[in-house]
Amino acid sequence: MAILIFTTATSAVVFAASTSLVDAVRRGDADAVQTALASKSVDVNAVAADGSTALDNAVTNSVAAGVVYSIAAGNSSART
């Protein structure tokens, strides 16, 4: 069990904004993502309780939507 202690109100706001970014990305809510990113207090590298980040969820959502990723390194048809 983890216990989080916030020493300032600002820390609590940053935490709330950061976790709301992860949640918004997880839901695929583009408007909420833009709102979270527009706030200057969001931590784009925040980690949710399940260990995921906004980027983790964005990639998961895009793969689930049928986007295929390829690694360009070693790919002879890769454009530079």
Which outline best applies?
elongated
Overall radius of gyration? 16 Å
Let me know the number of strands. 0
Strand content: under 5%
What's the SSE pattern? HHH
Characterization of the model:
This protein is mainly α and 80 residues long. It has a domain at 11-64. Helix content is 49%, strand content 0%. The protein has 3 helices and no strands. Helix 1 runs antiparallel to helix 2 (30-38) and helix 1 (9-27) packs parallel to helix 3. It is elongated. The chain starts with 8 loop residues before the first helix and ends in a 16-residue tail after the last helix. The model is unreliable at 1-15 (pLDDT under 50).
Summary tags:
single chain; 80 residues; mainly alpha; elongated; disordered N terminus; 0% strand
Write the layout of secondary structure elements.
Blueprint: H1 9-27, H2 30-38, H3 54-64
Short summary of the structure?
With 80 residues, the protein is mainly α.
